[in-house]
Design brief:
With 694 residues, the protein is an alpha+beta fold. The protein is 14% helix and 30% strand.
């Protein structure tokens, strides 16, 4: 007998979405082991450095960091580059105080046989000095890193970012225990990717200034390094206000490479200093530094070899011992890992069974490539792969879950391309997405009805939705709800022109693309036009609120820590994004009227469909005041709504209980909005009208 959509019995309970579903970052290789940082929702989202041997398939992963250490940096709030592993030593950022700690890479600290040792001084206030994106110089002792200072000289208005150096094994200072790091580069708003050359006499790094975001424009700087480890004779070799450079790296023979987009696509370039060219006194007085004229494209193509630098530590390519480069390539919106011959430009596709890759994770020891890979039919995993070996293919060192969903229940995505347009000169535009149809072998679908549709909106907005096996998506599809993950104009992976189509149009084009995605699904017959929902977090949450306030397509919406007041966001958010809206909306105060016109909180009378708000109490990116202001407007307009607060969560929910609670609340919310009774236990959720939550 057919079971109504939304009421299918699902093997994915709310607690299954997060419990032991690990996420991975900061992949490193050292010796015969691969290391990575994994975040464990079952431990409150704690970051744990783990490792696994690459040549012993029978050996499982082991923890390197002890239970009391939560590894996470808060530089730029989004972090990244939390861990450095080199020569048997781990350097990791502590969430508790944001200091860096040194510990053995052999796991003895996790077993209680060694203690993490601080290598950066105690800050004047808790978390006041934050470090990320560390690299060890060839001398084996000098560490270069990004530092973000939140108190101290010249930080009254906003934090100060700079590059610093310090010893990996510092001598104790008389009072502080550890001496202050030495500043080697300062004066710009942001820094990233300090990368010493293999010979130690040169260094490369990235810098940029307000109002640019790093995907708008960065500068790749190369400089000489003197005997003390200080930087001088700096020169810009690529990038600028309208050109973005990401993921700089030196090849084993000392040639600088990076992904840059002067053509509108992040292609790979190398910068070989003319052997008879300029010399800029390094440690031996004759370090040849490249210039902007030395830039050489390894392959010019309409594909992206780079990604937006939302986090630090981005690594989109790695060098193999035979001279080839293993590189992330996104072509037509589809990512793959390919092998580039830098001499011929040949780009070989080895056909790896992965639909997307964590862009900060591409590493190599010369023989193997290590990365975080996502599939549509299996859990995400930390993977080690030897390109030329016939040893069974890529080896999955650690999967995101120990209790994978039975493949019989997995809904695999279908790529969709749909027309979209607007009143600002893009009437024939195209947007993209991945549609996951309802699927459950234990349920018979109604023959005379189309399923509810959940349009999921990614954050950023300069981010993207990628095809993968997501427990959140399967939570819905196994219940009889279709999911359409949208890549609206402004998303990455389709070139600079597509990304910059959102410039000045945030809250207009992205929202319209989500509206048109839902209309497309309904017109094509795979969604019920009377049960269309939209859900998203952060910038995606803003799209939810704007879609309900300015359009009448959706019948319900769930906003996770979404932006309600653009003017307040510009005034209250953290430094990294404090001028982001200059490009997305317009500079203030000149564009004040535009901010007002696009802020959902100022037009809440347009929100008539039920709305669910979910908010972290310690969110510094989109503060709780945004949700509170939206509640006031909903109460005044007597719009049905529900509010769920997570007092200890920041931007993005990490604790397993909170993630489960959020999914249970969203399920109960759609059940109430669309008049279906979800199978299994349902959260106790009340839709309020004209009153505030208790």
């Amino acid at each position: 007998m057919p079971t109504p959509y939304g009421e299918w019995p699902s093997p994915v309970a709310p607690e299954d979405v997060a419990a032991d579903v690990r996420s991975f970052a900061s992949v490193e290789t050292d010796g015969d082991h691969v290391y990575w940082l994994e975040r464990r929702p079952s431990e409150g989202g704690r970051g744990v450095v783990c490792r696994a041997p690459v040549d012993d398939p029978g050996a499982g992963p082991t923890a390197v960091t002890p239970e009391e250490l939560d590894v996470r940096t808060l530089v730029h709030q989004y972090g990244g580059g939390d861990v450095l592993v080199a020569d048997g030593t781990v350097l990791a950022a502590s969430m508790d105080d944001q200091r860096l700690y040194r510990l053995p890479a052999d796991g003895s600290a996790a077993e209680g046989d060694a203690e993490p040792t601080p290598v950066t001084p105690e800050p004047p206030k808790q978390m006041a000095h934050r470090y990320a994106d560390m690299r060890l110089a060839p001398d084996g002792e000098t560490v270069y890193a990004v530092r973000e200072r939140h108190v101290g000289p010249e930080t009254d208005e906003e934090p100060r970012n700079e590059l610093v150096r310090f010893p990996l094994s510092p001598d104790p200072a008389p009072e502080t225990g550890v001496s202050d790091p030495v500043v080697v580069a300062a004066g710009h708003d942001f820094y990233a990717a300090p990368r010493p050359a293999p010979d130690g006499d040169r260094i490369a790094y990235l810098r940029w200034n307000h109002p640019n975001m790093p995907w708008d424009g960065t500068e790749l700087v190369v400089a000489a390094v003197d005997e003390a480890g200080d930087v001088r004779d700096e020169r810009v070799v690529a990038g600028g206000p309208d050109e973005s450079v990401v993921s700089p790296k030196w090849s084993p023979d000392g040639v600088l490479h990076a992904a840059a987009d002067p053509t509108g696509w992040w292609n790979l370039y190398r910068f070989r200093a003319d052997s008879g060219g300029d010399a800029a006194g390094g440690r031996d007085g004759d370090a040849a530094l490249p210039t902007a004229g030395d830039a050489e494209a390894l392959r010019e193509t309409s594909a992206a070899f780079g990604v937006p630098m939302w986090t630090l530590g981005v690594s989109t390519f790695a060098f193999l011992g035979d001279g080839r480069i293993a590189t992330l390539v996104t072509e037509g919106g589809d990512p793959s890992l390919r092998l580039l011959d830098p001499e011929t430009g040949d780009l070989a596709d080895p056909g790896l069974p992965y639909s997307s890759f964590r862009p900060a994770s591409i590493r190599s020891d010369g023989d193997r490539v290590a990365f975080v890979g996502h599939r549509t039919d299996a859990p995400s995993a930390v993977v080690a792969w030897r390109p030329e070996a016939d040893d069974g293919g890529p080896r999955r060192l650690r999967e995101s879950t120990d209790d994978a969903l039975d493949p019989a229940y997995v809904s695999e995505p279908e790529s969709v391309t749909f027309p979209t347009g607007d009143a600002v000169g893009a009437d024939d535009a195209t947007a993209y997405g991945h549609y996951y149809p309802p699927h459950n072998p234990d349920a018979e679908a109604p023959a005379d009805a189309a399923p509810p549709l959940l349009v999921r909106v990614h954050g950023g907005p300069t981010s993207r939705s990628e095809a993968s096996l997501s427990s959140t998506v399967q939570f819905w599809t196994t219940r009889g709800v279709g999911v359409l993950a949208v890549n609206y104009r402004g998303s990455t992976g389709y070139g600079r022109a597509f990304r910059e189509a959102l410039k000045g149009e945030w809250g207009v084009r992205d929202v319209l693309d989500c509206v048109n995605a839902a209309r497309y699904a309904a017109d094509e017959g795979f969604a019920d036009p009377d049960r269309l929902a939209i859900s998203g977090g952060s910038a995606g949450g803003f799209a939810v609120l704007a879609a309900l306030a300015f359009h009448d397509t959706f019948d319900a919406g769930a906003s996770y820590y979404g932006v309600a007041d653009l003017r307040a966001l510009a005034a209250e958010t953290h430094k990294f994004e404090s001028r982001y809206l200059d490009g997305l909306v317009g500079p203030l105060p000149e564009a004040a009227d535009v901010y007002e016109a696009r802020s959902p909180v100022a037009h809440a009378e347009g929100v008539t469909a039920p709305l669910l708000l979910l908010q972290g109490g310690e969110d510094e990116v989109v503060p709780p005041a945004q949700a509170e202001a939206m509640i006031d407007a909903l109460v005044a307009n007597e719009t049905p709504y529900a509010y769920v607060e997570f007092p200890e969560e920041r931007h993005g929910f990490r604790d397993a209980d909170n993630v489960a609670r959020a999914h249970a609340a969203e399920l109960a919310f759609y059940g109430a909005a669309f008049d279906f009774d979800p199978a299994g236990s349902v959260a106790d959720l009340e839709l309020l009208v004209g009153e505030r939550p208790e």
